[in-house]
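Q: Peptidase M14 domain-containing protein, please. Structure only.
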Amino acid sequence: MNKRALWIGLVAVAVIGLIILISKTSNKPEPVPTPSPSPSVQYEIIGKSVEGRNIESYTYGAGDEHLVFIGGIHGGYEWNSVVLAYNAMDYLETNKESIPENLKITIIPSMNPDGVYKVLGKEGRISEKDAKPTEETIPGRFNAHNVDLNRNFDCKWQPESTWRGNKVSAGTSAFSEPEAQAIRDYMLKEHPSAVVFWHSQAGEVYTSECEDGISDETRNLMKTYAKASGYKESETFDYYAVTGDAEGWLARVGIPTITVELKTHENVEWDRNLAGMKSIINYYGK
Ligand SMILES: [Zn+2]
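A: Structure for Peptidase M14 domain-containing protein:
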């Protein structure tokens, strides 16, 4: 082999190597943007989704009484509950003086980030501009294992459950999914005074229980949020049988929890939910 042929060979190998390297680099998932919350916010990554996206919590205030608000357990299908949670964070950030001293308020804006990504194609914070028609967002209700996370908790858990008459996967066991594990571990560590889950769309506020009956505290919370927001009061969700729901498990471990169903899938219904959130803050604030 002459020198010229050797050089051509070497150059060819280098070019092929470079092409492989570039194609591998461009196949990498988009980097998750690093949030830069202000110093007055306590930021924590409480877990990771199936596809490795962060499940984040943002905490405002430093009191002993702890309230937690959670958006997006049903991912991109209920994207407006995620946007509502981000808007609530903005509100708490700019209205720090409105947080009573005895309170600490945590927002977990997006409990099912893979479900958001699946149908909206966006990482991190989303806004009303990202909205898509409801029929297109249905697959985003589930996590990357196609599990309905609000059927994966340890309250009457069954491997299959229902959603509007359809069978849905509830996971291979209670807490098989990392998103449900993150919430379980956070709640058992923090044991908050109350939890609110934002969903859509029914325009109602529900209590929770797990075969032990509804506690007075939970009923009071439901009535408080319903009255302030104008959503309908509801003792129990009885449109179809639900097993393995997060709210029921929280009730079982003694944490009063309510479910707020926004009326539509279209917007965050801000005024109603701000009034609801403030009513819960007032209920516990001193
Ligand atoms: Zn939901």
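A: Brief note, in case it's useful. The first helix runs from residue 3 to 27.
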